[in-house]
Amino acid sequence: MAAIASSGVKPITGMLRRGLILDLSIALGLGFTFGSAFWYGYHMPRTNARDNFYKKLEEQRAAKAGN
């Protein structure tokens, strides 16, 4: 037993926790970055374009009705 403990191999304590924290940090950072890129780069412009289309359509309908 003592021969194994005194060998040149370092114990690996703490490696799992450090790796887990690093992996979670990277995953959350990338998820937030790409989520924001989708939301503000694709979703919001499409939503605004749709809303503007229906607003214009409603204004045209109201103009035809004479209101």
UniProtKB/TrEMBL annotation:
UniProt keyword list: Membrane, Mitochondrion, Mitochondrion inner membrane, Oxidoreductase, Transmembrane, Transmembrane helix
InterPro entries to which the protein is assigned, alphabetical: Cyt_c_oxidase_su7a_fun
Subcellular location: Mitochondrion inner membrane
GO BP annotations listed: mitochondrial electron transport, cytochrome c to oxygen
Pathway: Energy metabolism; oxidative phosphorylation
A single cellular component GO annotation: mitochondrial inner membrane
Transmembrane portions of the chain: 20-42
MF-aspect GO terms: cytochrome-c oxidase activity; oxidoreductase activity
UniProt topology in membrane: Single-pass membrane protein
Listed PANTHER family: CYTOCHROME C OXIDASE SUBUNIT 6C, CYTOCHROME C OXIDASE SUBUNIT 7A
Family: Belongs to the fungal cytochrome c oxidase subunit 7a family.
Protein name: Cytochrome c oxidase subunit 9, mitochondrial
Organism: Podospora australis
